[in-house]
Design a protein that fits this description.
34% helix, 216 residues, two-stranded antiparallel sheet
Amino acid sequence: MPHFNGSEANTKIHTTKVGNCGKGTTCSEYRNNTVPLPSGWEPWEAHHILCYQSVNAYGEKQQYKDVLDEINDCYKLTDWCLNQPPNMVALPRKPVYRNFPAARGLNLPCHDVHHNLAIGGYRDEVTKAFIKDIWNPIKAAVDNAANSNTHFTPADVLSELQSLEKSFRAKLHSRGLRSGGTLIAWANQGSLTNGWWLAFSMAADAVAMANPLPTL
């Protein structure tokens, strides 16, 4: 999988968790780029809204093997950093809700609930958005170049990245409000049918409902 550390010549994009691209504080200290949860509410995760594993997953997908250079070239000239505040949000892990009663009104999903489900989990959802909104358009532009179609450009990639950052941030906040929000949902634990865990899940409704939790 290709990754860009922010220091390569003629490369603007930064898609790793290490290194410094000069767009803010040291990028490897991305936790410092994240508005934290209240003091003492640990552990919380400095979550990359557009996940590190998703951003460059095109390198692992057979359908893009013939356009890797074109995707790489678009990426290289896109002025964006994985680790800057628009792509960062603090999410609690389960112990925050267990150990700090005051946290139960956060209305934020848990980073360790349905983030990594292979099918339909949050990260898989982000990857599918990249397929639809970035990689497929680049591939289509390459495939149709002989017809003088306008190429998908680094400016287009940046616009889509910024749109996806906003969209998935909004999804995370709205998901924390499901089932009446995390405070009400916390009190409704125990059932495998009432959907109380939706408020704590990073996944979409159908995926979260298909993967119930008895308790947090």
